Amino acid sequence: MFRKPYRVLLLAIGFVLCVSAANADSIEGFTVTGEFREQVRVYKFDPGVTATMVAPPVRDFHPLQPTTLIVYALPNGNTTEQTIGKFLAPGDDWHFDIQHIGAQMRLLRAANPGHNLVLVYLENTQKSWPAWRAANPNNSALIANMVTTLRAAVPGSTPDVYLTGHSG
Questions:
Q1: Which of 13, 103, 132, 147 has the fewest CB neighbours in a 10 Å radius?
Q2: Which residues on neighbouring strands pair with residue 31, listed in sequence order?
Q3: Dihedral sign, CA of 125, 128, 134, 139?
Q4: Burial letters for 14-37: b for 16+ Cβ neighbours within 10 Å, e otherwise?
Q5: How far is CA 76 from the centre of its chain?
Q6: Residue 23 has pLDDT above 90, yes or no
């Protein structure tokens, strides 16, 4: 029916439309970013807590599949960027090469198809969870509120939640 050049053109248009639709389906409030095209959203909680939520790429996140939310309290002394990790370049701080939680999460996602794994890096301005908890006597209620807010941000059925951390 269509000549070959027209078929190629129609396929190209279809591909562009599919890619555009996939980008439009990112989780509400999230931004697609980085070389791995993960979906990221940053939350600020008082007093002095930043939660960086990282969901799988749009093509891999399916709200109808089971979801696990992993809330990871950063190691004492580390920033979110250091905890995510990266290849070291000359002059980089050594903290970028000790956790590599970003790479570990991508490996877990690849090993668990059919399951959404969403990670939250939980950082506080003191860079110490024991110090933050000591400064906030109502810390249990504050943490519970954070988890409730983060859990509600993940579309689909209510995710299972795991609280974890390192050195503090």
A1: 13
A2: 40
A3: positive
A4: eeeeeeeeeeeebbeebebeeeee
A5: 20
A6: no
